[in-house]
Amino acid sequence: MKFIILPYILGGFLTLTIGAAAQSPVANDPLVIAAYARTETPSGAAYREKEFDHSSQQWFDGDLNTANIVYTSAPLKESSYSWRGRREGFLGHYAKAIDIFTEGLELFPDSYALYRYRGYYLVRNYQFEDGIADLRKAEKLIENTDVSPKQDGIPGKSNFSPSTFKRNIYYYLAQSSMATGDYNTVIEYMDKAVAANELRDKDDFLVSTSFYKYLALRATGRDEEAEKMIKAVPQKLDIISNFDYFEAVKFLQGRYSREQFLKSADSLGKYAVAMVDHFNGNDKAAKDILTDVTKNNFKGYWLAEAELLKLGS
Predict the structure, then answer these.
(1) C-alpha to C-alpha distance for 77 and 51, rounded to whole angstroms
(2) Minimal CA–CA distance to 284: which of 311, 265, 266, 253?
(3) What is the spatial distance between Cα 274 and Cα 140, in angstroms, rounded to a whole number?
(4) CA-closest candidate to residue 135, choices 196, 74, 176
(5) CB neighbourhood size of 296 (10 A)
(6) pLDDT tens per residue across span 6-20
(7) What is the C-alpha separation between 258 and 276, in angstroms, rounded?
(8) pLDDT tens digits for 236-255?
(9) Angle, CA 246 vertex, CA 244 and CA 248 arms, to 5°
């Protein structure tokens, strides 16, 4: 008899919980309203669905279904919102991700994780100031947290450790500040991110942080310092995943010519070329590349869009 009644009890609990969530003020939250209202980039490129090959689409859809099941079974756990929101974000559903993180923050207003994730997707949805504000909140919340790295022996678990969050909050705050032209914050927080890094991907992190720091130094007229810093990045590195950043850094070091690099450059690489064109006074060439980059991405390319706004596209 216990086994027959229990599902009905749990079902009733979930119905009440989901019903309460549906009546929450999240749907009327200004950030959520603005997120869903965004259907094109600032330069006017229409949002498109993110495209995957068939096997990848199946995997991501299955992962999202699992996240939804976990959320339904544990709607009062912070991780249910983190997992579900990130999966929507991976699929390119930025507004939905922002919605989910906002819902989670109603229950967990002191969650540095949810602020970090929402900030990340707000920036990519061109809600720059709001995204940076979230990352600032995440920074403030994590400052009071023990971020000593802990070895738990579970593969991949370190991706959710406080030590990882701290360096990533610094990193994304720095990166996002490229959009608003707050280059001093870019420089300061890239340095803080490197200092806070406790993980084994030091070479990957070196190329990504050096990339943005170089651009910020150039943007503030500190050209000699920028060149000295970027040339100090070793030519031989143990790169795990940031191959696009490594190639872009090689270009910035002068190891590729502009024409040679453009033939193989991805969106990040083309953005790097456009920025160098801009620093060298060729804004027309920079705009042409940035426009091409943003048109060839499903929701534009936020770094390119930010520069187009500054250049008066």
Answers:
(1) 31
(2) 311
(3) 34
(4) 176
(5) 14
(6) 333 334 334 334 433
(7) 9
(8) 999 999 999 999 999 999 99
(9) 70
